[in-house]
Structure formats: C-alpha cells, structure tokens
Amino acid sequence: MEDICVRWVCKNILFITEKVTCSEPKRRWRIKDFWISARPAQKILLQLCKRNILDDEMLHLFTPEYVDLISPSIKEANIGHYALRILRDFRLLNLSATNLERVNLNTIIGCLGEWTVRNLKSLNISGTSVLCETNLPIVVPLGRFKSLHILNVSRTEFTTQCLQIVVNDLPNLRHLNVSRTRVVDISALVLIADRLTGLIMHRLDLSEPQHVDNLLSNIIKLHELRHLDASDKPRGLYNRQPAVDRLCSGICLPYLTHIDLSGNQFGLRLEDVMSLMYAGFASWNQNQERVLNGIYQLSLQHPDITMLGDRGDALLLATLTRNKDRAVYLQNAFHSIFEATNTVGSVKSDLLAAVIRVMRLHLRRAEMILAGTAVIYNLTRGEQSNHLAPNLLNRAVRITLAAMEKFPSHRQLQKNCFLTLCNDIVLHRAVGIFIPAFLRNCLKSFLKIFPSTSIGNCYSYNIHHILASYVFS
Question: Which key words tag this protein in UniProt (predicted)?
Fold first, then answer.
C-alpha cells in the first residue's frame, strides 16, 4: 500500500503541489495539515529523481514542516546549493548524493546541520565532484565526520593523497568504495587494517605492473576484510603476480565472505575460504571455454555460495541482478545469454525479467539496448511466448517499443525489435499496449527497407497486423 501511495504522489506531483512566487522559485503542497514519515518521504524523493522531476523547486517540498528525512537519496537531479540547504534542518544518519553536476563535496557538507556532521554513519557521493573552485580535489572537510563508518567516493576525482587524508581523519571508517577513482596506491589502508571490513575498488586504473603488485601486497595485509571487490574490465592474459597466490590461499583473509574478481584472471580455491558466501567471476576471458565451464561446474559443487559468471542460468541471473551499474559485465552477460539461447530451448522467465530491468536502467546506451533487443527476441520467439506470463510479455513488448523510440535511426536495433513484434503469439497475447504515433511510421518504413526481400515478404502481413492491433497514442 505504501508503494502504491508513493507512485500516486509522484505521478500527480504537479497537481497536488503549487508554485510559489518569491525571490527563489519553490513549490509547496496544496494539501494542508499533513506530515509524511521518513520511509515514504525518502521513497517519494528517490522516485522523483528516477522520473527526472526533482529540481530546486521540487526539493523545497521536503521541509521539516511536511516530511521527515533520516536516510535521503538524491541522484542525477538538477539541484543546486541553495535548494540543498533544506537538509540542514534534518538529523541525518545516512546520505546519498550521487551524480549531482551543480554541486560538489564541499557545498554538500556546507548544507548539513551540525548534528548530522557529528553523527552521520554513511556517505555516498559517487559521481559527484570532489574538486574545489581551483580544480583540485579537496577532501579535508570529510574529516569532520568523526562517526562515519561507510564512505563511497566512486567515480570521482579522489586520489591516493585524498585516501591518506581520509585514513588519518576518519577514526571510525570501516567500509570504503574507491571504484573508478584516481587511486593507484592503497598502502594507507594498512594503518586501519584492524577495523577495515569492506573494500570496493572496481576498475582502478592500474596500468603499471608495479601498481598491481603493490595493490595485491597491501590487500593481503587487510586481515579483517569481509567484503573485497577487486573486479576490473575484461583484459587479455598477463603475467601472474606472486602475491596472487597468497591472496587466493585463504590464510591472509580468514574472515572473507564476499569476493569479486570479475574481469581478473585470478585463481581461487573455494575450499580455502570456508566462510565464503559470494564470489564474482563475471566477464572472464570469453575465449577460455574451459575456464568458463569450470566456473559453472564450481557453482554446482557449491550451491550455498552466490556466484557471478557467464555460463549457466543461475550465474547469469546473479550477474544481471548484482551488477546493475557495471555495463561491461552486463553486456557480456547479454552476449552469453544470446549465445546460449540461439536454439529454441526451455522458457527462461527469470532471465527475461532481469534483461528487461537492466535495459530500463541503461536505456541511453545504444550498445546495451542493441544486445538487449537481440536477447529479448531469442527469449520470446516461437512457442516460448506461449509459456510466458502475460504481464512479463507485455513488459518485453513495452521495452522493445521504448528501444525503437529511443534509437529510431539504428537499423540493426530496429530490425531486432521488428522481429520480436512480428511474432504471431506476441501479437495475440500482448494486450493494452500503447504505441507512440511516430512508431507507426517506423513500422511502415521497415517494409520500405526490405521491399522485395524474403524478410520483407515474410513479415509484411504481421507488420500490418501490428498497425491494426496495437493502440496508438
């Protein structure tokens, strides 16, 4: 019920609020004498971000007079310093301010109240700049968060020098994410080895062999680690570093429960890490069939361990659901699913649902959507569509239409989409689908692309059926 109410509020936000004319434009609620508790208020805030609605005006709806906030999440929103000052009146324990272009770390900290600064437990500024006006990274203000346990500075200008400052100034830091930053040396973390339990460093730019060796040598000194992510983009074969053998022995990291080595050609004996609950092996070298099959067999031998990989439905499903923001792994997973479903086989509803979710998250990436439309075609073609739940089939059609609308001039992508839509079973079972009017022209133009080919003749009837069956808005 709470989620239904949240969706209704976000859908009707322009009708239940009104614009106030003053020196700084803002909106206020039309409804009087009400107050929203923290959890639904934070859901509304996040949904407004996802719908690209949140801006300076909208953020003024979230004042203590109307809502409570404890762990707000603001992402990819067009908001500035003035509007963010509403956070000053709340007592926050966790804050996520990600991918904000108009503010930086310094301005965010300046918008927080003293109670929040003293008591904040978790801070996520992934994708938000840590540069000051002189284009130099400035993280000294982070030292004010003496109670901070979890810090995420991934995809920022965070450097090795910044890491040293953070280690010195944050006495309670236990979990750190420096993925895709400018950090090349983690030696400073050895100073907090007795309390650091989580380290995520996905795709660090370690181009020099000595950087890799230094990294491995320091990881094995972090003996309290429970969660380690040393994943990378897929690379070719390279010389094995001696420290890898110690890392994979299980002796140095006895408490490890989560490890992600996706993209890295490391060896690992799971028997040596008895407490392991999660292991990521996605995007290993696709040419090493023996290794990929070995990972799949390993997952069968250890069903109690959640594994990521590029072979087997369970491993692929885990890769799609656990790596939603790592496009390179998702695209490799799409490729593996496509290859595995080239011949008509059993219905894979879970995989189809996961593929649709990933496509919705990455609708702006042409290469991702191209791969996704090919996978959807494979998973819905022929008699397989008869065994899919109507709701899932409708979602597949909707994301296919969204892909067509997003990339109208991408010929191969359009072809993939038409092949899916021209399935007789999809035509008859997908109901209540509204198609933007301009797609009518796309459907008609497909016939012009292949006017006298076998493809054009084969699908001419079904395209006319689409034009007659679906509802155009």
Answer: Ubl conjugation pathway
Helix axes 327-340, 366-380, angle to 10 degrees: 30
* pLDDT tens-digit series, residues 135-170: 777 788 899 999 999 999 999 999 999 999 999 999
CA distance 473 to 343: 36
| Burial (CB count <10 Å: 0-12, 13-18, 19+), residue 408 | middle
Work out the number of other CB atoms within 10 angstroms of the CB of residue 409. 7
132-138 contact pairs (CB < 8 A, 24+): 132/104, 132/106, 137/161, 137/162, 138/105, 138/106
The pLDDT value given to residue 364:
87
The pair of structure tokens assigned to 208 is: 């020099």
Ranges of each domain in the chain: 1-69
Angle, alpha carbons 454-456-459 (nearest 5°): 100
Which residues lie closer than 8 Å to 137 by C-beta, 6 or more apart? 130, 131, 156, 157, 158, 159, 161, 162
Cα 119 to Cα 221: distance, rounded to the nearest angstrom = 30
Instruction: Evaluate whether 41 touches 69 at the Cβ level (below 8 Å).
Output: yes
Give residue 391's pLDDT band: very low, low, confident or very high (50, 70, 90).
confident
| pLDDT tens, residue by residue, 106-117 | 999 999 999 999
Pairing label, strands 26-29, 17-20: antiparallel
Angle between helices 366-380 and 349-361 (to 10 degrees): 160
What's the CA gap between 464 and 471, in Å, rounded?
A: 13
User: Is residue 472 packed enough to be buried (19+ CB in 10 Å), middle (13-18) or exposed (0-12)?
Assistant: exposed
